[in-house]
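lol forgot to send this yesterday, sorry. struct tokens for the thing we talked abt
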């Protein structure tokens, strides 16, 4: 997906869904954020891990940003952050766009603040729409060919 296809920064901004699998020795409310390249727009999000040491599938729906500047050249169009712990100056309100750099929401679990904690993540996928589809597995040769086209 190209960031330009999302039409973020316009009135036609599209909703996206971030899906992934997570496994942690900790339980509770965790967070992350989606940000523009300049880190002047961010959307902190939360998700819950209810059972420790169990793979859990997470789906987060994010309303498209109608403000800000979203580059569509060869720079990073958007960043997805998974918060493992952040200082108070880098946390904000979950579930809404902000003109600040927020790595994660307020009051979420701090993995790095817990001695011996573990956290694993896999199958990260960002797609247009308000529902997640299955993770797309592609053979190595296909992925290599797609990369070599550049």
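and heres what i got for the seq, position by position
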């Amino acid at each position: 997906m190209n960031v330009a296809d999302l039409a973020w920064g316009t009135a036609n901004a599209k909703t996206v869904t971030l899906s992934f699998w997570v496994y942690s020795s900790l339980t509770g409310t965790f967070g992350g954020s989606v940000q523009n390249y300049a880190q002047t727009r961010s959307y902190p999000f939360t998700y819950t891990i209810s059972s420790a040491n169990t793979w859990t599938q997470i789906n987060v729906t994010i309303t498209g940003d109608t403000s800000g500047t979203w580059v569509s050249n060869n720079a990073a169009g958007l960043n997805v952050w998974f918060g493992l712990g952040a200082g108070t100056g880098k946390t904000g309100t979950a579930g809404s766009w902000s003109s600040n750099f927020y790595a994660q929401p307020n009051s979420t679990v701090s993995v790095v603040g817990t001695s011996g904690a573990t956290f694993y993540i896999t199958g990260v996928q960002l797609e247009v729409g308000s529902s997640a589809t299955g993770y797309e597995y592609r053979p190595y040769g296909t992925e290599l060919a797609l990369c070599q086209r550049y």
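The first helix runs from residue 140 to 148. anyway ping me if u want another try
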